[in-house]
Amino acid sequence: MEAHKQLTIGLFGFGVVGEGLYKVLQQTPSLKAGIKKVCIKNPEKKRNAPASLFTTNKNDLLNDPEINVIVEVIDDSVAAFDIVQTALKNGKSVVSASKKMIAENLQAILTLQQETGQSFLCESAACASIPVIRNLEEYYDNDLLHSIKAIVNGSTNFILTKMFEEKLSFSEALLLAQQLGFAESNPKLDVEGYDAVNKWTILLNHAYGIVTHPDRILFSGIQNIQGSDAAVAREKSYDIKLIAQAKKLKNGKVAAFVLPQFVELSDPLSFVKNEYNGVVIESGFADKQFFYGKGAGSFPTASAVLSDIAALRYNYKYEYKKLYHHKPHLLTNDYYLKVYLSFDDWKYIPREEFEWIEEWHAQAERKYLIGVLHCEKLVSAKWWKSNNTSLILTPDPVIDNLDIIHLKKRSLELAGVV
Ligand code: HSE
Question: Relative to the CA of 183, which ligand 1 atom is closest?
C-alpha cells in the first residue's frame, strides 16, 4: 500500500479561516500535516500563534522546497491568483478558499492544473462545510443531473432569517453577520449576490462541466427585498431565500442563475436558516437529495480546508470528468422565467416585455405583479434592479421554450381572452 504523503504546509492568510485552520490542525495530530510558515499582510496585528511562524515575504513559502502544500485563504483575489499560479508552477499542491479568484480565473486555473499536473482543491470555496464539490465530482459522474438548487451564501441567509423571523433591521442583521465572521470584508459582495454567483460559477463547473465567468450569469442579491415582499410571501405561505439554481432544459442546455426566490414551506431549502447552506440535487434515478450544513464561519470553513489537505495525502485531484470525459453542457439564456415584481410606480415596469401577466395588484402603495418573461429580457437590462424595484422568482420559475406555447394559451384562457 502506498504510504501517506507527509504534508508540509505554507499558509497564506491568518484571518477567520486561516486561524480556524491553525486551531483545527492542532486538534488533528493524526493527520501529520504541519504548518511551516504563515504569510500575512499586516505584521503589526496581534496573532494567537508564535511570532516565528509568520513572515510577510511570500517567497519564504513559495520557494521553500520543503513546503509541498500551499493553503491560500486570503481576501485579495489578484494576489491570491498570483500565489496559486506560482505555487502550481513550483510543483506544490494548492488548497484555496478564494471564491472570487477561482470564479474569475476558472479557465486559467484549469489550464494550470493540466500543465503542471498538480492538485488544486477548493471544497471550502462553495458551501463551506458541505462536501458538495467532491460529491459532484465523484458521485454524480453521469449524465443524469437534472437540476441543482442551493443556498450558497451564509450571510444573506442569516440576514433574511434575522429580519423576517426575529424582526431585526437589515443593518442590525448585517452587523451581526460581520461580528460572527460570516460576511466578506466588503459585505456588498454578500448582499448584492456577487459571492453567491462566484460560488455558482465554481459549482456549475463541477456539476456540468461548464466553464464560464460570473459576469455571464444572471444574478442579484437581497438588496432590493422589501418588507411588503415578506408580507406577500407570508400570505402565499412562502419563504424568501437567495437561491442559486441550474436546470437542464429539454434541449440538453443548462439554465443557471442566482436570484431571490419564493420557496414553498415544504421545500427542504425553506428549512435552511441562519448561516447554514443547503443543496438540493435532482438526478435521474436517485430523485431528490438534500445536503445541509454550515456555509460560513471559521471552523466550518476550516473543516473543508482540512478535508482537502487530508485528501492530498493520497494525491487526490479533481478529474473534471464532465468537462474532459463527457460532452460538457452549454449554458443558455434561451428560456422563460416566472417572476414576482414589486414596485413603487407602473412607469418603471416595461409591461411590453412580458409574455403574460398572471396577477397584478395596483391598489396598494407598493404594487406587485406576477408574470412571465424571457430570461434575455433580464440579462440585457437593469430596470428590474433600479428604482426600488424588487424581483423575486416564483417557486418553480423556469419555463422551457418547448412548454411556452401551451402555457401561454392556458394563461390566456384563464384570463378569459380566448
Ligand atoms: N461570506 C461568505 C458567506 C462566507 O456568507 O457565505 C463563506 O463563503
Answer: 1
